[in-house]
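Entry:
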Amino acid sequence: MSFFQNENVDCPSCGTGVQFSVVYSLNAVLRPDLRQAILDRTFQREECGNCGLAFRLEPEMTYLDAKRKIWILVRPFEDVAEWLDMEKYAASFFESAFGPDAPGPSQALGQGMTVRVTFGWPAVREKLLCSDEGISDIELELLKFSLLRTLDETPLTDTTELRLTAVGADALNLAWIDVNTEEPREVLTVPRGLYDEIAADKAGWEKLRAELSAGPFVDTRRLLVPAESATAAAENP
């Protein structure tokens, strides 16, 4: 099931209270409309009745899709420096909900489930898009590293990240997204063959592939924010 709670949230522009039905747990099989709303970038967005500003809450939920066999701990983007602790929390949460001590039906549901941790709406939308299009998120992150190595200039910053936005027969569209506005700064069209080439090159990308897939936070920022720094950030907020 999905779990919501009605909350009054202050408008970031005028301070007026805006009523939100805040999601804390989302079951995509039972609520495919909400899954589509994430893909459409409309989920958890409301308009202030006083000043008219439309704003979106940062995500803080668990996401379950039993059909596509994926479970995601979704956190606000500002928590990304705590990715190591969030990985541990996700593993513990999933184990208690679907592990050996869980009821039989829950254990069966958890079999073969991919577990992931994401930060911010663009990141979780990308995971959903990957599951729809048969794109491996691990190979996708390797593709991003390849682009970072070869592009002359990149707009990568602490609040700008490269995300998959669309998949075509012959190309992948990636965009540099401003995580605060969710607006693209620059769009890249990448030949699908480059993704296929990286996925097929098991030896050449072996070390980096292993580092990226060492835990449920499968993201380039896993290697950009070292584990010791993530731990320090979690211990010293």
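Strands lie at 3-10, 17-27, 45-47, 54-56, 61-65, 70-75, 114-119, 160-167, 171-178, 183-191.
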